Amino acid sequence: EMHLVESGGGLVQPGGSLRLSCVGSGFAFGSQDMSWVRQAPGKGPEWISVIKSDGVSTYYTDSVKGRFTISRDNAKNTLYLQMKNLQPEDTAMYYCAPPGYDSDHWGQGTQVTVSS
Q1: 33: closest CA among 59, 53, 16?
Q2: What tens digit of pLDDT does each residue of 88-116 get?
Q3: Neighbours of 53 (CB within 10 A)
Q4: Ranges assigned E (strand) in the chain
Q5: Mean pLDDT across the stretch 80-90?
Q6: Alpha-carbon distance 60 to 18, whole Å?
């Protein structure tokens, strides 16, 4: 059974940085494309970044392009999201999941709050 655990969130001022981590278990992490998805209060999920299983190809939605960097360490079954120049609109719960998987397969999430 797929198990995902996100960490690294917190409270940060506008312009600040955070690095999120997601550890996967119970599935072939190294063979699975992975994504970060976020959900702000009262809004639907927003899939913000994808990385292919080999870690070479990546995709970003326009709202985070140039500020966020997705990466992975398959030896550690870990997915990362480096976030820079954070803005209040980035405030959300952040989850990792294979692309397109519904929320039943997400972890517990990690909260990112950007506020002065």
Answers
A1: 53
A2: 999 999 999 999 898 888 989 999 999 99
A3: 16
A4: 3-7, 10-12, 18-25, 34-39, 46-51, 58-60, 68-73, 78-83, 92-97, 110-114
A5: 98
A6: 17
The pLDDT score that the predictor gives to residue 9 is 98
Q: What are phi and psi of 29, to 5 degrees?
A: -55, -45
Q: Distances in Å between the alpha carbon of 66 and those of 6, 43, 69, 112, 116?
A: 22, 23, 8, 18, 22
How do residues 19-39 score in pLDDT, each as one tens digit? 999 999 999 999 999 999 999
Q: How many CA atoms lie within 13 A of 68 on its CB side?
A: 26
The Cα 3–Cα 40 span in angstroms is: 22
Residues in the chain: 116
